[in-house]
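Pilot study result, target chain (122 residues):
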Amino acid sequence: MWKSIILLKNQLVEIYGGHQQVIDLMTVWEQKRGGFTSNAYASLRPQSSVVTWEKIVWEQRALRRHNFILWLAMLGKLRTKDRLRFIHTDILYIFYRQAEESYGHLFFGCNWTFSLWSKVKS
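Predicted structure:
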């Protein structure tokens, strides 16, 4: 743990240009509301980009498992056959064997699922 702290200290000195600048930064973290640890974490953690689909995926009235599946779909991480190429399996769509099973096909490209979603919507 000490090695990690020393490495972080050296990185902060390099990034902010000197020991005094790091001391000033840590003083600001200490004085800000929320405490030193949370302010340091907020300052040092990688900042992710804002996504436009957040409110759609994390809809309050939806079931959590549905939110989770939609979140995986938006990230392209659903366990579909196209992601199993490394085990040399049949990747064709199970309902009709004319296209590859992928999350894009399942949600947007398949005529069968499109008609199903149209019926659910109406």
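One observation from the pilot: Residues 2-16 form the longest helix (15 residues). A full batch analysis is planned for the follow-on phase.
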